[in-house]
Design goal:
This protein is of the alpha/beta class. It has one domain: TIM Barrel, CATH 3.20.20. The chain is built from ten helices and seven strands. A seven-stranded parallel beta sheet has the order 1-2-3-4-5-6-7. It starts with 8 loop residues before the first strand and ends with a helix.
């Protein structure tokens, strides 16, 4: 799809494992395709010092790399140190406004609430996003909300209505954004009527 709609990519170990290719090959291919837009790549270390070292290595893959750091105490120790070194961080697996507040106070460039997983747990994922966005507005935090674990078109629309900065959209859902039965019906009718006009 070459419409200029895609302005970045997020990855995670689960998605990368499905490629059946060497990790670095996949990441380098993604970075080439995205051409300067942010690409979030996950650090898997659990201790702050190890996360920092891993993030330094990950960031060497390209200027557009953003390192995903888990929403843990150790992760939040790592974030300010990385951001001060110019390594942008995406705090991942955030499920509460309190976690988003901490991520912003640590200076994270991005925070990723997983709305689909919240919905699966019988919580209101989009309400969490709305609260995160409001908190950031209240205090003029520059951290951007990246709505993740998007399952359907309604999630995309609700994320936009909530004022989320970014929405990570699976390809299937991205395709569905274009579609509506009345659009197809209208096109078919217009074509039928066009054929009936004497030429």
């Amino acid at each position: 799809m070459n419409l200029g709609l895609i302005e970045g990519v997020t990855t995670n170990p689960t998605l990368l494992a499905k490629s059946d290719r060497k990790l670095l090959e996949v990441l380098k291919d993604i970075l080439k395709m995205v051409k300067g837009y942010p690409v979030s790549i996950e650090a898997v270390s659990q201790e702050a010092d190890e996360m920092i070292e891993e993030a330094k290595e990950i960031s060497k893959l390209g200027k557009n790399v953003v390192v995903k750091i888990p929403m843990t105490e150790e992760g939040m120790k790592a974030v300010p140190q990385l951001e001060q070194k110019g390594i942008r961080c995406n705090v991942t697996l955030a499920f509460t406004p309190a976690q988003a507040l901490i991520a912003a106070k640590m200076g994270a460039s991005y925070v990723s609430p997983f709305v689909g997983r919240l919905d699966d747990a019988k919580e209101d994922g989009m309400q969490v996003v709305r609260e995160m966005v409001q908190i950031y507005k209240n205090y003029n935090y520059q951290t951007q909300v990246v709505v993740a674990s998007v399952r359907n078109v309604r999630h995309v629309i609700d994320a936009a209505l909530a004022g989320a900065h970014i929405c990570t959209i699976p390809f299937k859902v991205l395709n569905e954004l274009f579609k509506h039965p009345l659009t197809d019906k209208g096109i078919a009718k217009f074509l039928e009527d066009w054929e009936s006009i004497p030429k």
